[in-house]
C-alpha cells in the first residue's frame, strides 16, 4: 500500500478535484466518472469531470502559457524543468504505481520497475534533445538561410487506460520538450495518475497553464478537444474507431494535426529450424501474451510456429506448461505478473470471443484454473489452436490474455500472416541464424520488429504502426520530438 497515494485519492474524491488547470487542482463541474477497482469490482468513488466551460478554460490557459515568454522560447530552461520533473516522478514512483494498480489493475511492482521508470527515461531523454536541437543551414546563389523546428502550440493529449502513466510519458515528454503546452485527457478508467502528474509538474516549476489535466469521457471532453479551434494538434492512442472520429473532428474544425496510434495484432514467429531452447522461447512468448493481462497493442495475439508436426507438438507442450505457470494475482502483491482486465465489459467480451472460437472448432491448448476469488474482472490466461478466421478472435484484436497458436510449413506463410491484414504495429521473430534473420527483416512489414525476444525498443527508437495501426507520427525517439514541431524556413535574399 501507499500512504501518500491513498491520501491523494481521498483528497481528490472528497473535494471532487477532477480538473487540473493552471497548476491548480479544481472541482469538476461536468459529468461524473465512476472509478472502479478492477481487482475487486468495488467502487473507489465517483469524480466530477470537466464541463464544457472548463475545457475552454484549460485550452485558454494553455494558449496563454504558450504565448507568454519563458516556455516555448527557452530551450535550456525547458530542459532544466523537465529534468526536475523526471527527478520528482522517480521520487514518487511508488505512489504513482499504486494509483495505476488501484484503478487500472496494473501490477504495482512492475509498474515501478517499468512504467514509471519509462516516464523518467522519456523526460530525461527529451530534455537532452531539447537542449541540443539544431536546425539545417542553407545557402545558394540567391541568398542563405536555415530551417528551424518551432513548437506547434496547444496540444490535446488523449490517453489510453492500459498504460496510464507510461503512455502519458510517451506523449507529454516530447511535446513539452518541443515547447508546446498541453491539455491532457486521461481515459475514464484511469484518471488518478494523470492528476497526480499535474501536481508533480507544478512542484517541478512547470509554468502555469503548460500542463492541464481534464477528467471526462470521450464523447464529452475528448470530442471537445478534437473540435476545439484553439487546439493546434491532437495525439491519441486507442481504437481505430475513435481514431477515425478524431480525424473527422480535425476536418470539421481547424484542420489540427492529428497523430494516432491505433493498436495491433502482433505475431510471435518461431523459426524452428534456427532455435535451440523451446522452453526459453515459450517463457518469453507467454510474458509477451499475458503481461498486463494481454491489454497491450503489441501483446502476442498469435504464436506462429514454422516447422513440422513433431516439432510443433514438442513446442506447443512447452508453451502450454509456461502458460499454466504464469503468475496471476493481486496487483498490489509481490508475486503476480498479471492482474485483472480493466472492466466488466472487457472481461465479458474476451470470454465471449473465446467461447465463440471454441464453439466454431478451436481447441484449448492451455487455460489456467484457480483465478482469484471475488467480483474482480479476472480472465484466465488462455492458449487456443485451430481458431477459424470466421470468428472475432480469428481476425480481431482481443486485448486480453488470450493467444492463438498456429503451425505453418514455410517462412513465406508466416510472413503473409503478418503482412496480409490491416494491422501493422509490431511482431517478434525468433531465429538464431543471422542470414535468415536478414530475410525476416526484409519480408515482415511492421512498425517494430523484435528479434529473439519480445521488445518495443527503447526511448530512443520510434514507435508506431503501418497500415491501420497508425496515422502520422511516432512516439519515442527524435522522430517524436519532430512530430510536435512545425518546420519554419528562414531565407535571407542576397543583396
Automatic annotation (TrEMBL):
Gene3D superfamilies tied to this protein: Aldehyde Dehydrogenase, Chain A, domain 1, Aldehyde Dehydrogenase, Chain A, domain 2
Domain annotation Aldehyde dehydrogenase: ranges: 28-490
Superkingdom of origin: Bacteria
Keyword Flavoprotein tagged: no
Keyword terms: Oxidoreductase
Record's keyword annotation contains Oxidoreductase: yes
Molecular function terms from GO: oxidoreductase activity, acting on the aldehyde or oxo group of donors, NAD or NADP as acceptor
Family matches, as InterPro entries: Ald_DH/histidinol_DH (IPR016161), Ald_DH_C (IPR016163), Ald_DH_CS_CYS (IPR016160), Ald_DH_N (IPR016162), Aldehyde_DH_dom (IPR015590)
Protein name: Aldehyde dehydrogenase
Species annotation: Ornithinimicrobium avium
Upper taxonomic lineage: Bacteria, Bacillati, Actinomycetota, Actinomycetes, Micrococcales
Amino acid at each position: 500500500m501507499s500512504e501518500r497515494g491513498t491520501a491523494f485519492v481521498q483528497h481528490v474524491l472528497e473535494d471532487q478535484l477532477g480538473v487540473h488547470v493552471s497548476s491548480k487542482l479544481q472541482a469538476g463541474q461536468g459529468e461524473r466518472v465512476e472509478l472502479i477497482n478492477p481487482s475487486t469490482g468495488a467502487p473507489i468513488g465517483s469524480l466530477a469531470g470537466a464541463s464544457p466551460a472548463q475545457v475552454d478554460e484549460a485550452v485558454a490557459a494553455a494558449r496563454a502559457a504558450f504565448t507568454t515568454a519563458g516556455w516555448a522560447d527557452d530551450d535550456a530552461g525547458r530542459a532544466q524543468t523537465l529534468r526536475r520533473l523526471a527527478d520528482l516522478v522517480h521520487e514518487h514512483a511508488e505512489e504513482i504505481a499504486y494509483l495505476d494498480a488501484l484503478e487500472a489493475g496494473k501490477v504495482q511492482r512492475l509498474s515501478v520497475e517499468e512504467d514509471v521508470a519509462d516516464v523518467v527515461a522519456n523526460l530525461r531523454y527529451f530534455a537532452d534533445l531539447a537542449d541540443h536541437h539544431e536546425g539545417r543551414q542553407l545557402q545558394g546563389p540567391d541568398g542563405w538561410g536555415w530551417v528551424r523546428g518551432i513548437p506547434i502550440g496547444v496540444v490535446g493529449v488523449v490517453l489510453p487506460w492500459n498504460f496510464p502513466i507510461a503512455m502519458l510519458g510517451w506523449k507529454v515528454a516530447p511535446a513539452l520538450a518541443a515547447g508546446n503546452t498541453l491539455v491532457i485527457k486521461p481515459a475514464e478508467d484511469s484518471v488518478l495518475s494523470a492528476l497526480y502528474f499535474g501536481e508533480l509538474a507544478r512542484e517541478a516549476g512547470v509554468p502555469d497553464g503548460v500542463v492541464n489535466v481534464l477528467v471526462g469521457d470521450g464523447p464529452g471532453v475528448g470530442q471537445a478537444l478534437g473540435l476545439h479551434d484553439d487546439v493546434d494538434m491532437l495525439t491519441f492512442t486507442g481504437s481505430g474507431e475513435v481514431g477515425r472520429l478524431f480525424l473527422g473532428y480535425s476536418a470539421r474544425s481547424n484542420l489540427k494535426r492529428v497523430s494516432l496510434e491505433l493498436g495491433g495484432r502482433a505475431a510471435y514467429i518461431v523459426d524452428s529450424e534456427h532455435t535451440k531452447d523451446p522452453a526459453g522461447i515459450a517463457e518469453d512468448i507467454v510474458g509477451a501474451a499475458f503481461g498486463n493481462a494481454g491489454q497491450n497493442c503489441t501483446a502476442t495475439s498469435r504464436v506462429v510456429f514454422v516447422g513440422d508436426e513433431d516439432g510443433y507438438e514438442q513446442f506447443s507442450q512447452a508453451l502450454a506448461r509456461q502458460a499454466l505457470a504464469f503468475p496471476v494475482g493481486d496487483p498490489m502483491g509481490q508475486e503476480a505478473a498479471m492482474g485483472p482486465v480493466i472492466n466488466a465489459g472487457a472481461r465479458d467480451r474476451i470470454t465471449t470471443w473465446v467461447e465463440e472460437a471454441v464453439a466454431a472448432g478451436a481447441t484449448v491448448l492451455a487455460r489456467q484454473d484457480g483465478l482469484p476469488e471475488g467480483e474482480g474482472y479476472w480472465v484466465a490466461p488462455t492458449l487456443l489452436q485451430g481458431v477459424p478466421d470466421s470468428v472475432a478472435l480469428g481476425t480481431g484484436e482481443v486485448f486480453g490474455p488470450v493467444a492463438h497458436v498456429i503451425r505453418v510449413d514455410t517462412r513465406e506463410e508466416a510472413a503473409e500472416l503478418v503482412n496480409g491484414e490491416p494491422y501493422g504495429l509490431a511482431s517478434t521473430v525468433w531465429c538464431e541464424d543471422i542470414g535468415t534473420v536478414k530475410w525476416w527483416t526484409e519480408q515482415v512489414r511492421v512498425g517494430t520488429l523484435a528479434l529473439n525476444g519480445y521488445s518495443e525498443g527503447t526511448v530512443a527508437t520510434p514507435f508506431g504502426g503501418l497500415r491501420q495501426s497508425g496515422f502520422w507520427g511516432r512516439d519515442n525517439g527524435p522522430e517524436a520530438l519532430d512530430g510536435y514541431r512545425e518546420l519554419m524556413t528562414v531565407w535571407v535574399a542576397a543583396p
